[in-house]
## 1
Amino acid sequence: MVRALGVDPGTRSFDLALVEGSRVVDERSIDTAIVAKDPMALVKAIEEMGSDIVAAPSGYGVPPTRIEDVKDPHRFAVEVLLLSTDEDIEEGISKGDVGAYVYRGLALVVEAMKARGLRALFIPSVVLLPTVPSWRKLNKIDMGTADKLAVAVLGVYDQSRRLGISYSETSFILLELGYGYNAAIAVEGGKVIDGEGGTVSSMGFLTSGPLDAEVAVAGRRWSRVDVFHGGVVDLCRSSSLEEAVEKHLSGDEACTTAVEAYLEGVVKSVASVLTSFSSRPREILLSGRYSRSETIRSIVEEKLKRFGIPIRRIGLLEGARISKEAAQGYAMIAEGLSGGYFEKLIKHMEIDRACGTTLSWLIHPRLREARERVLRAYLESVASPRLCNEKI
């Protein structure tokens, strides 16, 4: 039996879930601030838990890649997984941005895992899947990062098991209400067919969500850490979404504007991906840190009633207590790619057939240089790169 460990690099916490068969047998949660300051704390936890394979933090995603095939772990982590540069990260650190510290920490974790000979692999994101039509990918990167794909895998398994149906009969919209970001992922026939990731979906607690191109032009120069800003917190100045909702309900005008934008954005994201289904999905599955708040969940569910689709929280693997959904999904993908219990699920979802880079479908002339830079980094840092056959 394969012992697979999933590591989810969340905005608020890094969660680890160790899976044997269909059960979580061990799990941990480490504050993101701790990992940012001491990346080796995460590496030590990985080693202590013990596993046959580790699904390592994969950022914006990459075709299934074993760490032994990574020739340059630093470049692979920074330029391919994080779509960043050393200069971007150092600039963010000089400004004291926690996101930049996390990025640097993730790069150090990948380097340490390679140096210590850990058996690990990196997983795809939604845009790399062959089940998502190419026309939906044009000028998109964040259709759902690796962690959002991991949650979708858990969703297919959960719905199949709970309703007693085959993987091919599952269909749902996964609505992620994360600490920093929201996301909406469309699953039909047990395959991911569309998605809006945190920087494309609605305004989150931290992030602005999608930006008008005119806004981008007005901003002139943007940096990597800007994706962590522009959300509810910047308008409401609250420490959490729960606090923002409380201020909204008590009549705070700024928080009311922020919360209403958040809620309306969630509804619009669901409506957007709903258009990609050939028939009505069975459910809307809620996941993420804020889906565990009864107050927030009840407000979101009330807003979503207009669609007439059953709404429920996503089910967890047996034995799970503290690890987030994404950590469990990460472990499921690693376990399935290693020929374990979830192999049929992973093959059905065609995760093993992911290809390209996350910038492969950018066609705007302004983005040609970035697309070529990431492609070059991928080709030069990985021994067996997996490119797509299609030409865009």
Note: The chain has a mean pLDDT of 95.
## 2
Amino acid sequence: MNKLLKFIKLLLLVGVLITSLVACGARGSEQSSGNKTNEKRTIKIGYLPITHAVPLYIEKEQAKYQNFDLELIKFGSWMELVDALNTGRIDGASMLVTLAMKAKEQGIDLKAVALGHRDGNVLITANNITSVQDLKGKNFAIPHKFSTHNILLYQMLKQNGLKYEEINPVELPPAEMPAALSEGRIDGYVVAEPFGAVSVAISKGKVLVQDNQVWKNSIDCALVLRGDFINNENAIAQEFVDYYIEAGYTAEHKDQSTQEMSLKYMKVEKDVMDLSFKWINYDNLKIQEEDYKELTNNLIEMGLQENPPTFADFVNNSLIDKAK
């Protein structure tokens, strides 16, 4: 009998030990799972080194993120950036809004959540060009046919009695344009800053027309995010946009600290940056429906898109409306 009681007690003790070990293992598993959950999400945003992406640079330099880390990924061309965005290798980008609209039209789920800037596109020409009419038969560079810059060129010519077909539009990478103008390969160009300021700063070109003289409230670059990122990680997307809008307010001051932060991402001289900042604004980065409608009308008029995405389908102002 005593032996039987001792055996039963032994079984009970073994059972308690096994239960304890299983519980510890479960807690260890929960802790391990918790550590994975607590890892910060890294948001990957693409950009080209231009002043139109300055709010991103400022955000990266000054923000102290609570729930995510921001990785800015530099691209050498818009096509490389678009490919990375379309295939999901990046979560968003500061990019030509028209290229994002084209990707949206082709079935890529993208949303424009804020502007990159306002104004800041100048139409630069060689010093011997004295009027728009002088451009007849000349080579004029644009970064891409699906760009606001191309629309600005079209509108400038139209408003001055010239047809688009009466000049020779040339697609060039932005960084090549100042050298092409200096060497006489082109007679003018319109592109994102600071490449216009480069030619003016070295006296190889001049400003023929400012963009707001041709088309007020033109939409050029925008902050675009993938739809799945906004939908699946809305709280993080909101926090990211909160910081972005705050950075836009900082960028608008264009003080020395703003310039120093921006120069880390753009390899230009200080005088070029000073000139570029005179032409560009970063206030009120919300995309307005009437401005977007004018953009789509221009695209249709030029035959660049038959059915551009509607404002409701492409623009998501919910994040900027909730920005702190």
Note: The radius of gyration is 27 Å.
